[in-house]
Amino acid sequence: SNNVTESFCVYWDELFVTDAKKDQIVQSFSYSYNLLNTQLPYYDQLTGLYTAPYDGIYIVRVMIENRTVMKVQFNVCSKDQCEEKLHGVCLAKGKKMSPSVAFPVILVKDEQLYLKYFEDYEDLKLGRNTTFSCILVKQLRLNL
User: 49-65: per-residue pLDDT in tens?
Assistant: First the structure.
């Protein structure tokens, strides 16, 4: 079979408070897990970067639990050797809103996937249900 179960999910276990800058990569998720084991060999919790281990179709899911009165938006981006790509956004329009988005992306081996803050946020508060996850649903052979 050409399907490989590769996945990760990262989240905070408690209220997360930070001052964030526009285009800063979202990092410092405190907890993680995947479907196979507790190791996340392709997601770096310190940098917030996921490095695709295979060419393939991945499903990305983002959820924001907004605990502030301001709008909060995460951009889902990837970067290969040449350029940065915007794949989608997740927008929480106000306090106690918890939007979730999921969509497919095609990543090539070694392409990096990450979340970025859409703008500057002072005293940003995000709840424990804020998550970033990804699963490989089909390995491909891309000739790029």
Answer: 999 999 999 999 999 99
